[in-house]
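Second attempt. The first submission of TIGR02453 family protein had a stray character pasted in from the spreadsheet, which I only caught after the job came back as garbage. Lesson logged: always re-copy from the clean sequence file. Corrected sequence (208 aa) follows.
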Amino acid sequence: MDRVTVFAEEVFTFYEGLSADNSKTFWNAHKDVYEKAIREPMRELLEGLAPAFAADVVIFRPYRDVRFSKDKSPYKTAQGGFLELAPGVGYYLQIDAEGVLVGGGFHAHGREQTNRFRAAVDAEPTGSALETITAKLVKAGFVVGGEQVRTRPRGVAPDHPRLDLMRREYLTVGRQLPPEQVTPTTVGKHWRSLKPLVMWVLDNAPPD
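This time the job returned cleanly.
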């Protein structure tokens, strides 16, 4: 059993400070904290778990793309990591000033993937299977996410039995973990509970 948590308390202090002062001056003064206490532990955690999930490791960059944003803050106030089974499909971990999020699912790579997802949600038995999977995850403490259209997609009845899922452009589930629970064993356990969801996506709504 793991005895030491992945992220030290200074990580949360770092992100509190970065949220208050998102500047190059702050970043340069604390970059060693980011490298040693955030990025490297995240990389070690993901690389240690990747073989069990047959996934590739993705560590997201700390810099924001501000080209088309009114907010010109240069740095992300969270660090994300991903075990990727296919483009945009896999298991996610994020740390910020509020704590740690563990989750999984998919972000659509284009309209065609969203259309495949909705067609599978609409059909039987695939739609009922996903409904059962997500209900079980919600009961276990996960929260269903994913961008939604305001009302419903064109052609979808207002009384569709899976309207909440049909409204989504993509599908994620996640839950917050207390920092002291963020160990390889615990994260791996939560990701394994998400495997039915991730496999459903790969089987029914894979990327192009």
